[in-house]
Amino acid sequence: MDCMGIIFSNIYDSSMGALTAFRTSASIPFGGRYRQIDFILSNLSNSGIRDIGIITKYNYQSLMDHLGTCEEWDLKLGDGVRFLPPYATGHTGAYRGKLEALQTALPVLERNRNKYVVLADTTVLCSIDFTEVVEQHEASGCDVTVVSRRGIADGVTVQPVALKLDADGKVVDLAMDYAAPKDYAVGMSMFIMSREKLIEIIHELVPHGKYHFERDFLLGYYNDHKISVNVYQFHNVALFNENVVQYYNNSMALLDGSVRHSLFRGDISIYTKVRDAVPTRFGMRGQAADCVIADGCHINGYAAHSVLFREVVIEKEAQVRDCIVMQGCRIGKGAKLRYVILDKNVVIEPGVELLGSPGHPEVIGKNAKISKGAYNR
Questions:
Q1: Which of 127, 218, 274, 295 is most buried by a 10 A CB count?
Q2: DSSP letters of 180-235?
Q3: Rounded to two decimals, what is the model's pTM?
């Protein structure tokens, strides 16, 4: 396909709390064995897109470790897939917007010869074939195509990009940071445009203090009638993990078979780093009900309505309900956890009780050790 991909790995780091203290949003674990970047990287690879730049700025060691040579995605690091650190700018701290982040990618964009660019975050998880999206974009003759999903806007939740379409699917209103009513489609942070046009707007806007792709380019140019916008309507499951609560709710949504089967479709594979491990082992009194469980776990206690990553140990008489427990965690005898997210390699000592809520899950950071009486809520 005559198309390259640009992936933003850090954009939502500031809204993910402890989950991005030592990693990018792209490398947040999800679904028992995956990382968030696995979804967009698999979609690009499955669509025949081989030239891919991953824009990142800090905390990306775990992302590099996860991707390795990219062979699991049928890609090759350094010969197609490239990390794009901030060598093009002297600005420190988080990127102020995607246009500023894209300035980092200018040398790669200018050397590339593909006609189109797919721009995507790692926080929207879905299985999508970009071949069809790019074909529709080209047929539309528009400057930009926005991938969107209906059925998400509710009139209450503020959406980063919302679009109202007429009966023919044409855009009649485009809004940002808007609690859009139900008849609006919501942008999925995926855009298709020509590579030359993208280079042009980076050169035009960034030197004038314009850093935001959606606000300064998409909305600004649309309102000034400088660009035409096409919308590709996506109809399958799309999970938006733009903050901790969304991450928790979407992880729990995987317990629904229809969500799981739409996200992990037979015709579009989602790849991840391969790790060989023994099957999960249940002790004499070990039980699990309505859980997603990865391999290598030892369950001697009770787990319900939870997502357990690889090599999780639940000791006797421990209870884990409505939780996300990442790789290598150990939950001691008699401990009780509910509405909790444990990052990797957390140790919960015997007898500890942790209670969050569906709207405010308790997050325990990576490598923490929680002792009874030493942690209070």
A1: 218
A2: --TTSEEEEEEEEEEHHHHHHHHHHHGGGT---IIIIIIIHHHHTT---EEEEEE-
A3: 0.93
